[in-house]
Amino acid sequence: MSVKELQSYIGEANIADKFKEETLIALGSRVRRQYDEDLDSMSDWNESIKKGLDLMRMEYSTRSTPWPGASNYKDSLLTRAAVQFGDKAALELLRGKDLVTAAVIGKDPEGEKKKRCDRVTTFMNYQVNYDMNDWRDEQEKVFYIVPNSGVVFKKTVFEPEEGAPESHTIQYPDFVVNQATKSMNKCRSFSQNLDFSKDEINERVANGLWLDPEIYGEENEIDIKGDTGSNEEVGVINPEDNPDLFVEQQTFFDLDGDGREEPYIVTFHYSSKKIVRIVARFDEKSIMVKHEGVITPLPEVLKAMQQAQDESFGGKMGMSLLGLTPEDVNADKLELVRIKPFQNVTKYGFIPSLDGTFLELGYAHLLGGIVQSLNATTNQLNDAGTLANLGGGYLSKEFRKSMGIDSRRIGQWKYTDVPAEKFAKGMFPNPSQEPSQVLFQLNEKMHERGEQFLAVADISGKIDPQTAPTTALAIIQEGMVPTSALFKRILNATSKEFKNLYRLNKLTLSSYKYQRILDDEAANVETDFIDDAFDIKPTANAEMSSKMHRIQTATIELEQFDRVLQAGGNPVPIVRNFFDAIGSDIVDQIFPEEGMNPQQAAQMEELKKATDLQNQIQKQQLEILSREQDRLDAETKSKIDKTVQEMQNMQVEMFETMSKTILNGEKAETEQVKNQIDLYTADFKVKLDVLTAIGAEHDRNIAQSNALNPRPTLQ
To answer: With the C-alpha atoms ordered 328, 329, 333, 338, is the resulting torsion angle positive or negative?
Structure first.
């Protein structure tokens, strides 16, 4: 297939009519076989999620085993997990009005890239909020589905009828992909199940979007009955009243037989394997050609060749310098190297599969076994309690009177003709026991394990009013680590979806609409939507946790207000952030977008002066305190030195007295020596008490110092 022919396929609504019947038959068999192989690779994953989702389905009827009317309880652990995660994600990740942001890649000395970047983000925020009016609803649906199913796909396409892009959610069981796939960029085949009724099929054929699959009519009656579709109505006799299963598959196929596969999107009828539509899954930039020994995207090569041919770039002389002839300026003369497919499907995953397979796991896969055990043990406890409460039992044959069902009122006593001895010996109650405490404890233990696995932190018992803001913030952040990790994966997928939307805008957005929405003459689709110029990503942060987290952060920032003002910084954002964190409704009135009026600016200047005065007073108080402390320390040191010297002198005298006694041969127990030692010991103790008193007086002097009195508040 020539490069020129590949170019002709780009943007076509359906190129299936360009190929021979035998080629379409071969392609139909190929995509059907690929679909079945991919579906078979998903068998274990499908079985797990099917059982898990069944565990979430509430039951309103009783079971028939072990007896009719037995307990049929289903634990709500999986449902609560999905609802709690969905609520938190919807509130945090979709909290802001602007959901799309972008960063400039590379140098931007003149700021032109930044201007284009701002225009792109403004327009894309308009798209996801207004033009794609279902985007937020679809995204919220993802947040509630992905925790249990494990993975959800979103397809970004341009709808000609609406004149705008749309993002469709593809959830289980409407997608089929091989578990050996490494990533969506390297995916060999991705299939989506689609249900179409007869009228919908005829409408697409009439509009030229599809080839006629010819699946209705007398000659096709047997094939139609064999089509189970994916949404068969129960009890429908006429197969035409049932929607038929079609499959849209992103795949590769060598349509021209040159040994090199090209990427396409193929739609086929599952039962008959008939192809109804083929669309190119590439654009001009996807076509890589070899030019002068270098592999380059096709548009860059054509542009360079066209410039060489243009008179302003040298004309024929420029062509000859490059070693080209006019015949060389032709796409068919270029050597096709490969075709890079674009990807319009984004995967939203929850927890990566532990065995390395492609599809992620959800709570339905990971907690299904625990929930099954919870259901079984709870039903056993309920049934045991029912048996114990119902009573009943066996009557001996000595009972001549049939008791039957006896209705009684509370506090009522009734007579019986049965003698007391026979009454006591002839009744045997059911040998049922009270619900097992061991089973109850096991049930509680499993429930606790399941709760621990959920990414929902309970910090209510860890934070009290006395907890310091910094400590509370650390506790909140630590508790939100599991949720933040999941949010990060969700936001990474959202970034890929925004990049798909960015690429789609480059191909389908009209400059008229772009300029009209932005009301900016400089807005140009060709120059603003340049590949690899910007890093498109969500504005949300994976570590955004809760309102409590934001309030604690804002409180810590507010404590640094004086330091920011003293350092010459702007403290207004700190105050505004605090009001935003607590959810104030008057932030726009406090901080109007047009800025402060002269009166407000004067008030701000007075506040700064007052704060400076307060800082000066505080500095003077600290200097007074420091001087007072130095004076008290010097006075106390003098007293201590004097007392210590006296104690040392006493020790010397005591030592001399004892030495003289020993030298004179007198015993240490003589009355004179003993009295002398007691005298010195008592004096030594007095000096020690004096030293202690000096220390206490020093502490009192500091406590009573005027420098430690509370500083005056500014009125």
So the answer is: positive
Distance CA 600, CA 615 (A): 22
- Say which DSSP state 10 is in: T
**What's the residue count for the chain?**
715
Give CA–CA dist 281/263, Å, rounded. 5
Maximum pairwise Cα distance, the chain: 143
Compute CA 146 distance to the chain's CA centroid, rounded to the nearest angstrom.
10
Distance (Å, whole) CA 411 – CA 416: 16
475 near 102, Cβ under 8 Å?
no
- In angstroms, rounded to a whole number, what is the distance separating the alpha carbons of residues 74 and 54? 10
3-class secondary structure, 369: helix
Distance CA 521, CA 517 (A): 11
Task: Please write the tens of the pLDDT for every residue from 328-354.
Answer: 555 556 778 888 888 899 999 998 988
Q: What are the CA-CA distances from residue 443 to residues 59, 170, 375, 387, 449 (Å)? A: 20, 36, 9, 19, 10
pLDDT tens for each residue of 656-697: 766 666 565 555 456 666 666 677 677 667 766 776 776 676
Least confident interval from 347-351, 584-588, 605-609, 617-621: 584-588
Q: Report pLDDT for 409.
A: 67
- Beta strands (DSSP E) in 187-230 are 190-196
Residue from 7, 22, 148 nearest 76 by CA = 148
For residues 392-411, average pLDDT: 64
Write down the pLDDT at residue 155: 94
CA distance 155 to 344: 6
Q: How confident is the model at residue 226 (pLDDT cuts 50, 70, 90)?
A: very low
CB 265 within 8 A of CB 281: yes
Tell me whether the omega of the peptide bond preceding residue 465 falls within 30 degrees of 0, making it cis. no
Strand, helix or coil for residue 579: helix
Spatial neighbors of 269 by CB under 8 A, at least 6 apart, are 213, 215, 244, 245, 246, 276
What's residue 713's pLDDT?
47
CA distances, 144 to each of 122, 138, 303, 436 (Å): 28, 10, 48, 37
Burial of 663-690, coded b for 16+ CB within 10 Å and e otherwise, reads eeeeeeeeeebeebeeebeeeeeebeee
Q: Kindly indicate the confidence band of residue 625, based on its pLDDT and cuts at 50, 70 and 90.
A: confident
Rounded to the nearest integer, the mean pLDDT of the chain is 78
CA 444 vs CA 15, 80, 392, 450: distances in Å: 61, 17, 30, 10
- Quote the CA–CA distance of 547 and 578 in Å, as a whole number: 11
Is residue 156 classed as helix, strand or coil in its secondary structure? strand
Report in angstroms the alpha-carbon separations of 404 from 327, 386, 392, 393, 412.
107, 20, 10, 12, 18
Q: What share of the chain is helix, strand, coil (3-state, %, to 5)?
A: 55, 10, 35
Take residue 350 and report the two structure tokens written for it: 């929850």
Q: How many CB atoms lie within 10 A of CB 7?
A: 17
The burial class, CB within 10 Å (0-12 / 13-18 / 19+), for 436 is: middle
| Residue 517: strand, helix, or coil | helix
